Amino acid sequence: MPQDWILASDIGTSSVKTALFQSDGTLVDSSSHSHGTRQLQPGWADQDAMAWWIGFCRNVRDLVSRHPDARHRIAGIGVSGQMLGCLALSSSGAPLYPSLIHADTRSDRETRHIRDAVGAENLYNRTGNILDARSGLSKILWLKGNEPEVYRKAARFMQAKDFIVSKLTGNLDSTDWSDAGHTQWMDVNNRTYLTDVFSELGLESGKLPTLHNGTDIVGNLTHDAARELDLIPGIPVVAGAGDGSCASAGAGSSLAGDFYACLGTTAWISYTATKPCFDPKQRLFNLISADGRTCGVYGTTQSAGRSVTWVMDLLGETDLKEFDRKASQVRAGSEGLIFLPYLEGERTPVYDSDARGVFFGICDAHQRAHFERAVLEGVALALRDIVTVFRESMTLSAMRLIGGGAGSDLWRAIIASACGLTIERLKTPTGDATSLGMALATSVGVGMHPDLASAQREISVLDVQVPVPLDAAAYDRIYPIYSELYGVNKKMFARLAELRS
After folding, report:
1. Which pLDDT score is estimated for 256?
2. Tell me, what's the pLDDT at 1?
3. Residues with Cβ within 8 Å of residue 197, at least 6 apart in sequence
4. Is residue 180 part of a domain?
C-alpha cells in the first residue's frame, strides 16, 4: 500500500482539528475536539496543554477507526498551532504550568520593563513583531517574576505545536522560525535567538528549543505515541509552523504579492513578501513562511469569531444560520449601531491590550438583530482598518478569505462591501485551510513536493463576492466614526484597566 497520505493537525484556541490529506491536498476526512480556556481574572487566559494532546489523540483514533488503511498510508505528520503562547516544560516534557495563550495579557508590567530596558523600536526592528503584553518574551519574564519555581524547573519554553511534536517524537528541543519570531524570541533578519536581549532581561536563552525550518523532519513517531494513536511507529514528524504561516500555505499564498485573510477566532490579513517588511508606525508584523522561503506581513484583529460567539452566548443564540438570517434582515449600517470588537484588547492598528469592546449609538429602535449585524460589521470594519494600512503602500483589489467565518455568505458580503474588495472563497473547506497548509508543508518535508509553490497548485477559487454599491456607501459613511472611537476612548480604557487591576 503506498504511503501517500499526510496527517496534519491544528491546535486552535477553542479546539484541536486533525485531518488526513492526499498528497495533492485533497481532504480525506477530519475530526475535531474542543477544549476550554481558563480565565481566572480579566486579562488572564491559559489552557491545559494536556487537553491539546487528549484532543489530538481522540481525533487520530477517530480518523483511524474510519480509515483503517491510514496506518499504512501516512507518509508524514505535521502540527500547526495557535501562536504567541508560552508553555513551560520540565526536562521530562511535563507541563509545569498552564500555557499562557495569545489572548493572555497579564504581563503588562513586564512589557513596560522590556520597553524601558530594551526598547520597543529596537525589538521591532530585530524581530519584525510588535511588543505588547501578548509577547512570549513578556510572558517568560512574568513567569520568572511570579512563578519562580516554574521558571527554575523549566527546561524548555515552547509553543502549542511544539508540545504536540514533543509528545509524538520525544524530542523536547524543537520549534520553528515562525513561532520563535512572532513571540519575539528570535531575530528575523538572521534567524537566531536574541541572546543579548535575554541576557539583558536576566532570562536564560538556553531554555529555548532549537530553531528549525517548519518543513524539517525533527523526529519519528515513538512506540508509546503510536500506541496512544493507534498508528505504526516510525512515521516522520516535521517541526511544523504557527497557524498564521500554515494558513498562508493553505490559502495558496506562498508567492510574493499574494494577499489573503483568515477569519477565525482571531482574524488576520497577510501579504506575502520576499523578506521582512518593517512598518515605521509598528502596526504590521512578520512571520517566516512554513517552508522558510518567504515572509508574511500581517495585520491582526484580536476578537473576530470570538466576538460572534460572545454575542451569540449573550443572546442565547445557538444556531449560526439563524444568527445570520436575523442579522441579514437589518440594513447595512445597523441603523447607526456601531460595534468596536476589542473584547480582548486589539492589535493592528492600535496594539493596546487595555482596549475594550464598545456598542456605540444604541437607541430604543435597536432590536436583537441590530446587535447581531453590528458585531459582524464591527469585525469587518476592523479588517478595513488593516486594509487601510496596507493600502498606504500598495494597491489592493481582491483578497482570498479562509477560516471558519468564511463559510458565512452574509459575513463575506459585509466584508467585501466594508473593505471595498472582491472576496475570493476557495474550494478548500473554509475551516480546513490551516490544516491543509500544514499538510502541504509536511509533504514538502517528506519529499512529495519540491516546495510549497508546487504543492499549492491544486488550490483554486470556488466563487467571488463583490462589494454591493449601496452597502459600500453605508460603510463609507460609518467608517470615519468607527475609526475615531478608539482614539476618543483610549484614556478611558486605561482608567478601566486600572480599576480591573
Report:
1. 87
2. 67
3. 118, 123, 126, 137
4. yes
